Amino acid sequence: MSLAAPLASGATLVLGGARSGKSRFAEGLIEASGRPAFYIATAEAHDDEMRRRIGEHRDRRSGLWTTVDAPLALGEAITAHAQPDGAILVDCLTLWVTNLMLAGADIPAESEALATLLSQPLPCPVVLVSNEVGLGIVPDNAMAREFRDHAGRLHQSIAAVAMRVTFVAAGLPLILKG
Amino acid sequence: MSLAAPLASGATLVLGGARSGKSRFAEGLIEASGRPAFYIATAEAHDDEMRRRIGEHRDRRSGLWTTVDAPLALGEAITAHAQPDGAILVDCLTLWVTNLMLAGADIPAESEALATLLSQPLPCPVVLVSNEVGLGIVPDNAMAREFRDHAGRLHQSIAAVAMRVTFVAAGLPLILKG
Amino acid sequence: MSLAAPLASGATLVLGGARSGKSRFAEGLIEASGRPAFYIATAEAHDDEMRRRIGEHRDRRSGLWTTVDAPLALGEAITAHAQPDGAILVDCLTLWVTNLMLAGADIPAESEALATLLSQPLPCPVVLVSNEVGLGIVPDNAMAREFRDHAGRLHQSIAAVAMRVTFVAAGLPLILKG
Known about the structure:
Chain A has one domain: Rossmann fold (3-Layer(aba) Sandwich), CATH 3.40.50. Chain A is built from six helices and seven strands. Chain A has helices at 22-33, 48-60, 74-81, 93-102, 107-119, 142-161; strands at residues 11-16, 37-41, 65-69, 87-91, 126-131, 164-169, 172-177. Chain A has a seven-stranded mixed sheet, sandwiched between helices. The longest helix of chain A has 20 residues, at 142-161. Chain A is globular, with a radius of gyration of 15 Å. The mean pLDDT of chain A is 92. Chains in contact: A-B, A-C, B-C.
């Protein structure tokens, strides 16, 4: 099975664990389409470890990509850069949830607004990457539990409106929907 | 694919992470059958957070449901409420394991007894929800490791006798068995 | 579906969580083949809990198995014991990564060397078991994050060259590849 399945129209959610190859799989979906793409990055480099991880992701991508930073205003960035014949990759939703929590935002409302945007006809394919974080032991830390709840509910909302949902493990896809 | 697949006879195990939509998926299986159902709750509200979570689950369910509390005597509750034309939802096995640990019970023996009960012909479908908790980093805490071991072994025992096993991620089912 | 699917030639990667039944599933693959097998153990018993876990795994296996310890020199052990008509089980890769970290080894280089070895024609089937550890909350501990990164990257490398990759949950297999 080729990792370079044809890029679905509408929204595609790519879920996976840490270092599961989910970003690379999502990039592969878009690169195989040959479309010029916007990479919408939600990451903010708070420390050296984050700066290194962001740099590694950036170095891997080819010249087809234009990077846009959207730590908070994700829906606006998708709307602004969705062009016919283009493509959008959002990497990743879990960092967006983290940023929203740090900013004291209304996360259920933000999640609902993103799901509503993605449920409407989109000018181009939008692939969203996110970390599945709910399959370990319940965290001791109340904020980590809250984060896990927000992320899980967001995944359910986006999965419900997405045309395709893929779970990636060890770089390999399992189709959940589509 | 409809979430409302026909309700299998015998036991169905629904595994998933935190906020994966596993309870809602399990409720959907039973509600689609139109059968009056017993909701066997293993949760005990030790604090406000738990009370809120239990309340959210309860508010979501329709009037078809009768709630029964069974923090420890789960097999007895299943036997007492299994009626022809009815259905049973157990939510969830991981909280039952937690309660058994706090009560100092013999968990391998309790797990074996539940698997034996579920391996026998049942008067009605029984759907059991549980958290997959073994896919994160090994916990520092010895009790958390012990819990994780008990939960994992219980899942294997129940899955071996269940007619159907489903893994739920982002509200979407992956069929493991059945 | 029988757990005893025919044993594929080449490398098979069996991923799963703690107490998911992944080792038992992998052993079943090899036992069903009837081939005499080498069990290459990467575990080192640092404490009583580890000694107990190793003993449980060892007690479960039948007389067809010869146990070989390879906490660090895994590739050498595979090469030394790969014989036509035989079979090899490596249990598990995540403990190998832990041992390499404790020894201060160059883990990307070691991972690459193992993937290269497994990508070449092998005299007999080699089944490798590993823990998926990347599906929980980001660990607080920097060493745990580093371990999680090494394990995830190794899984991607091995999965890319393996003939078959299986994810095991509750003792049941999901085919990722092959």
